[in-house]
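Appendix B, example 12.
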Amino acid sequence: MKLARVDRIRTLSIGGREIICIDYAHLKGEELIHLVNRARLAITSDSSLKLVLTNFGHCFVTPQFVRHLESITPFVNPYIERNALVGLNKPKMMILKGFNLLMGTDYRAFASEHEALEYLLATRLIDVPEAIF
């Protein structure tokens, strides 16, 4: 496993597959929106389908942030093969459920990075990778 870190948007390589890792942890307000905009550029940088692992731990998801996500999702979703989210508490899980229903997405929440990686790679991981976030 190789991890290239470029602040809050990183690329993780496992078994020849690349995963874009986006870390919203401890951000708020405009910081969240700014990172969404940067993530959009990273995901749409080429025409390939992306695997995305997103951390929403310890951040406050505001209605303004959700509206911004709704506005860019139609442009980003065609580039996403699978999107796994970690760090969601019950309120964020409810927001995700409504978001998926409204936007027609299938973004999934996981209790651990390990489970999220297995979903993204569609395989069981024998070796537990280092913590990503």
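The first strand starts at residue 2 and ends at 4. The chain is about 40% helix and 25% strand.
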